[in-house]
Design a protein that fits this description.
globular, 5-stranded mixed beta sheet, alpha+beta, Glycosyltransferase, 6-stranded antiparallel beta sheet, single chain, Glutaredoxin
């Protein structure tokens, strides 16, 4: 018999709908029950593509003995961290304070007043490897609540007070100077793995914001480190050489064996990294990786309604990586003996295997150069094997659509069109923007979650900010002024609902949210740029298009708010440091007067898009209604290009060649 999660929309919650645990979703009914019955809350937070969440479900939440203890002594609540990042951030801070580490599944015990008093991550059903068993742990917590409730409540109050103090940013200071960027770059240099690429030891994550900062701000040697990292990620098993797109991270230092889940937010950001590398170097392989990853989004993650799904699991048929790994015999079955043997030699498929059960993860780096396939044959064989692989049972997909992650996808698709010129990417970006406005924009407010025709949950700071930046990127692709008008409305909502006008920066949630013990002001950048990074970056870019001083001031105020923190721990703020880099450098504004479809304008756009120009602002208009075009009409119908660096503007030029000379 299903529990109350059967009424949920979240794929993660629905995965637990048939557990014997009497799960409830986070909401007024569950929270009221805890207060009325004076029971502690067992809060379990995870997400659909989480491998260890699946393990803990199989071992514990499907276990009747575990369910008996939970149902007798606790109000058990499941939360999809992707739907409620505010709860995830708050209680992850608690778990890290209590244990020194965090991760998912996250397990937290709360008082009926929502204050945490104990926590951890994955717990096995019985003691194992130094970890306490889940049933004995539940029993001890239930006994402690019964025998010393007052002590537990006092401890929870003290922890909550500590968390509140830790979350206090303080009053804004001065805008940090360039020295903090130099410190961050030096830290990245020291952490660089010269052999395998990447920054730091295993497990290795893509660290997109490090790549972006090094490309934009670093020396030639820094650029070489960045390119080595991008090459290593592409050559290794973290990249899906058949279907495109990247897994979440590599479990080893050499990028060979990935944790196979594929997230929309990772791939959207990595597309931007590879496009920037292509602009900076002209190397076709970076364009290829970006193109194949964009194609993965269109083929496997795009919803028919225009939005993009959240993720694909690491597991299929209960086994991690089963969809992605191969034996030589399977390759030969798919491609035939001769082509199969050549493919195995080129992509590291061996009889011994490099993964579990004697299977191999497809990769390029360990293969002899003479075994490499010619480019055309490489593409043909990879596509043949992809189609054969598609007959396997696919990993589960989380098909909910999240506003923030779709804002990132909107940027990736728009930039993909700009750099690669493929009209499919522009069409997908336009469909995504139309979806967001049609399905997630309600009475002047942005909602966060959509699935199967239903939208819910008020948008958070990251939702508003990511969609604003996505719209700016889309405007710089199709030059429809409606993009900027909606972005401006969203930006005004961002200021009204999340901005701390007194001390600077932005809260992650709106004021007056009754199910939070306090509001947080997120500064650290994680796998996704922090909400303040997204807000500052989006508002800065929008201010340069619209000449809105309030947007610029709020963006720079965010840097001032977190300035002292950035100086203490630069590597925790790489995204925000990227915004600082844009503030400190003179902005490059390129305004083209003419129709976007005019051949002369298109030739000029090619000169802009093929160059790596960090922070450039691009606008095209046939009239003078947009701020960057005021007083800048075309001459007798002929396109003109106006280029300004900071407060210095060059005379307008009439040709793509003339524009190229200015951009150099």
């Amino acid at each position: 018999m299903p529990n109350r999660l059967a009424q949920s929309l979240s794929p993660y919650l629905l995965q637990h709908a048939h557990n014997p645990v009497d799960w409830q979703a986070w909401g007024p009914e569950a929270l009221a029950q805890a207060r009325i019955e004076q029971k502690p809350i067992f809060l379990s937070i995870g997400y659909s593509a989480c491998h260890w969440c699946h393990v803990m479900e199989r071992e514990s939440f499907e276990n009747p003995a575990v369910a008996e203890v939970l149902n007798a002594h606790f109000v058990s609540i499941k939360v999809d961290r992707e739907e409620r990042p505010d709860l995830d951030d708050l209680y992850m801070d608690a778990v890290q304070t209590l244990t020194g580490r965090g991760g998912w599944p996250m397990s937290v015990w709360l008082t009926p007043e929502l204050e945490p008093f104990y926590g951890g991550t994955y717990f096995p059903p019985e003691p194992r490897g130094g970890m306490p068993g889940f049933i004995p742990l539940l029993t001890r917590i239930a006994d402690l609540w019964r025998e010393d409730r007052a002590g537990v409540i006092t401890q929870a109050g003290q922890l909550t007070a500590d968390l509140r103090r830790q979350a206090t940013v303080g009053a804004a200071g001065e805008t940090p100077q360039a020295a903090v960027l130099d410190v961050a770059l030096e830290q990245l240099r020291r952490g660089f793995d010269a052999r395998w690429g990447g920054f730091g030891p295993a497990p290795k994550f893509p660290q997109q914001m490090a790549v972006e900062l090094l490309l934009a701000r670093g020396t030639r040697e820094d650029q070489d480190m960045t390119l080595r990292t991008l090459d290593a990620m592409w050559e290794g098993g973290m990249y899906d050489h058949l279907g495109g797109g990247f897994a979440r991270y590599s479990v080893d230092a050499q990028w060979l064996v990935p944790h196979f889940e594929k997230m929309l937010y990772d791939n959207a950001q990595l597309i931007g990294c590879y496009l920037a590398a292509f602009q900076a170097t002209g190397e076709p392989r970076y364009a290829q990786v970006a193109r194949e990853t964009l194609d993965y989004l269109l083929r496997d993650l795009q919803d028919p309604s225009g939005g993009f799904h959240s993720s694909e699991d690491a597991d299929s048929e209960g086994e991690e990586g089963k969809f992605y790994a191969f034996t030589p015999l399977e390759i030969q079955e798919a491609l035939g003996r001769e082509d199969g043997e050549r493919f195995c030699a080129a992509f590291g498929i061996t009889g011994l295997g490099n993964f579990e059960h004697g299977k191999s993860v497809i990769h390029r780096f360990s293969c002899a150069r003479e075994a490499s396939l010619p480019e055309k044959e490489d593409q043909i064989l990879r596509e043949r094997l992809r189609l054969w692989r598609d007959r396997r049972v696919r990993p589960g997909k989380d098909d909910k659509v999240l506003a923030a992650w779709n804002g990132l996808a909107l940027s990736a698709l728009s930039r993909g069109f700009q750099v690669l010129g493929d009209a499919r990417y522009l069409a997908a970006a336009q469909a995504c923007a139309a979806f967001l406005q049609r399905e997630l924009w309600r009475e002047g407010r942005l909602l966060r979650v959509w699935r199967q025709g239903r939208a819910h949950t008020p948008g958070f700071l990251e939702d508003y900010a990511a969609v604003v930046e996505g719209l700016v990127d889309l405007f710089e692709a199709d030059f429809d002024p409606a993009r900027l008008r909606w972005a401006e409305t969203l930006g005004e909502g961002l200021l009204a609902r999340f901005h701390d006008a007194g001390e600077g920066g932005f809260f992650s949630t709106e004021m007056g949210q009754s199910d939070l013990i306090f509001r947080q002001k997120p500064g650290f950048d994680n796998a996704i740029p922090g909400g303040n990074t997204l807000a500052a970056r989006a508002l800065l870019r929008l201010s340069r298009h619209l000449q809105r001083e309030d947007f610029r001031s709020a963006a720079e105020g965010t840097l001032q708010c977190f300035g002292a923190w950035m100086q203490r721990a630069p590597r925790a703020f790489l995204g925000l440091l990227g915004v600082l880099d844009q503030v400190l450098r003179d902005p490059l504004n390129v305004a083209l007067s003419g129709e976007p479809t005019d051949p002369g304008v298109r030739a000029m756009l090619y000169e802009v898009h093929r160059r790596f120009l960090p922070g450039r602002v691009l606008s095209v208009s046939a009239d003078v209604l947009l701020p960057l075009h005021e007083g800048r009409g075309s001459a007798a119908g002929q396109a003109l290009a106006f280029v300004c660096r900071g407060r210095t503007c060059a005379p307008p030029v009439r040709t793509a060649r003339g524009l190229a000379g200015l951009l150099k």
